[in-house]
Each structure stands twice: as structure tokens, then as C-alpha cells.
Amino acid sequence: FLPFQELQSRQFWCSLLAEATGTLIFVWIVLGASSPAGPKDVLPTSLQPALAAGLVAISLAHCFGKISGAQVNPAITMAFLCTRKLDALHASSYILAQCLGAILASGFFYLMLPSSAIGQLVTKVTTSVHCGNAGQALGMELFSTFQLALTIFAVEDHRRHELGEPAGILAIGFSVIGTFSGGSMNPARSLGPAVITGFWEHHWVYWLGPILGAVLAGVSYEFFFADSASREKLVACLTCRDIEIVEAASMSRSSLSAAVQAKSPDKEEHGTE
């Protein structure tokens, strides 16, 4: 009954449109920054697509952050699902919208790219695999996305308490900029060119690595590093109980403990007087 109500909600469809549009823009910009203008042009260094990804992430966070969270990444969406920040309906719908946006962006870019440089569209998806093997690429994708997702979860947590929005968005943006390895860190970004060109070699690496990295980062932060982290919160997540109630109770205990510690020095000072 509730999913049916959600499907009738304008906010639900606006959030899907935001994810599809955001992913379309993200993939378009990253592909553009990763490809040469022609066959005789030198391939861009890894710095150029990294800067493009970071800057467009900041822009999309301002545009769509309050609508859908501007996730534009199936790996991040899966991490939010596993930490119960998103329900199954929203998560699956977001991933479909993100994949659609990435495919559309890749298709448009394929049509506009000079015919002599179309081959470069494929190599951008599998560059890291050609530098080693699938296992090495999987490890790179996992650890790179772990760092990205950990930053996102930390920013979302601190934004609710003390960190301002601009600083949080910049932290996410520069976490993308900081990865110069040429890795994808985004399954949708790899899926789009693969669908358009039909090149699927080692494509599983760009799904398994980012999703594992993002989920590990999300679980690590939410249940071990966050202020609201507790054993009760982890048990509530595993047993499908209401995690928000447990989180609120944990935060209340932390606030009470901090207040008691703050008053203790005052009592000691009065005692010495």
C-alpha cells in the first residue's frame, strides 16, 4: 500500500528525474574530459577527468542535493540501501534512473564525437584493466570508491550537526578530484559506454568493485565511526527494526554524557574554592 502511495507522489518522480538528469550530466562531462577531439590529439591526462568529475559533483550537489541527494552513482545508492537510509523502492528506482541517464549521455556523446575518435569511447571504460589484470582493477575500484563513499557518509552526518553545507559539498567534490588513477568509481559511468559500443570485457569489475567499496564504507561509518554508532543500532539494522529510534536514543545518551562531563570541571572548581 505504501509503495503504491509513493508512486503517486510528485516528489518521488521529481527525485527520479533529478537522478537521471544528474547522471546524464555527470557522465557527459566526464566522457568529454576523458576523450580527445580527434585521432591525432593526445589523450587527456588523468588530472583532466578527475577535475571535471569533482567540479560537476559540486555543481550537481547544489542543483539536486535537496531533491534526491544527487547520488548519481549506483554504488552510493546501494550503500544507502544497506545502511537503511533508503528503502528498496527508492534505491531500485534511483539505480534504474541513473543507468538510463548514463546510457543517454553516452549515446549523445557517441553521436557528437568525431567518427575518427569514436574508438576512444571504449578504452576509457577499461583503461585500468589494460594496465594490469582484472583483480588489480577490482582492488583499485574497491578502495577508490571506499574513500569516496566514506567522505559522503561523513559529510552527510556532520552536515546535520555542525558542518555547513558548502564545506560538505566541497569535501565530496575534492574526494573525487583526489583520485588520479583513472578509475570509474561509478558503475553507471561504465555501463553507458558499454551499452552504446557493445564492449563488455571485464565490465563486472566496474560494478562489483565500487558497490563493495561503497557498502563497506557506509557500514563502517554508520555502525563504527558515527556519533550515533552503537551495538544496538547495528542489531536494529540486521533485524529490520526501526533504526531511527535506536539512533535517536544513542544520540541522547551521548549528549547526556557530554553534558555530565562538562559539568564535572565546574564542580571541581567550586570544591577547591
TrEMBL record:
<feature type="transmembrane region" description="Helical">
    <location>
        <begin position="133"/>
        <end position="155"/>
    </location>
</feature>
<dbReference type="Pfam" id="PF00230">
    <property type="entry name" value="MIP"/>
</dbReference>
<feature type="transmembrane region" description="Helical">
    <location>
        <begin position="93"/>
        <end position="113"/>
    </location>
</feature>
<keyword id="KW-0472">Membrane</keyword>
<dbReference type="InterPro" id="IPR022357">
    <property type="entry name" value="MIP_CS"/>
</dbReference>
<feature type="transmembrane region" description="Helical">
    <location>
        <begin position="167"/>
        <end position="184"/>
    </location>
</feature>
<comment type="similarity">
    <text>Belongs to the MIP/aquaporin (TC 1.A.8) family.</text>
</comment>
<keyword id="KW-1133">Transmembrane helix</keyword>
<dbReference type="InterPro" id="IPR034294">
    <property type="entry name" value="Aquaporin_transptr"/>
</dbReference>
<feature type="transmembrane region" description="Helical">
    <location>
        <begin position="12"/>
        <end position="31"/>
    </location>
</feature>
<dbReference type="InterPro" id="IPR000425">
    <property type="entry name" value="MIP"/>
</dbReference>
<feature type="transmembrane region" description="Helical">
    <location>
        <begin position="51"/>
        <end position="72"/>
    </location>
</feature>
<dbReference type="InterPro" id="IPR023271">
    <property type="entry name" value="Aquaporin-like"/>
</dbReference>
<keyword id="KW-0813">Transport</keyword>
<protein>
    <recommendedName>
        <fullName>Aquaporin 14</fullName>
    </recommendedName>
</protein>
<keyword id="KW-0812">Transmembrane</keyword>
<feature type="transmembrane region" description="Helical">
    <location>
        <begin position="204"/>
        <end position="224"/>
    </location>
</feature>
<dbReference type="GO" id="GO:0015250">
    <property type="term" value="F:water channel activity"/>
</dbReference>
<dbReference type="GO" id="GO:0005886">
    <property type="term" value="C:plasma membrane"/>
</dbReference>
